[in-house]
Amino acid sequence: MLIRFLRKSKYVNNNDILKNRDHDSESTAASHYLQVFRSLQDIMTRGNQRDLARAKNAKANAGKNKSASETKANAGLTLQQRKERDADILRQKQAKKAAEKEAGDKKK
Question: Which CA distances in Å does 81 have to 55, 75, 84, 85, 93?
Answer without folding.
Answer: 37, 11, 5, 6, 19
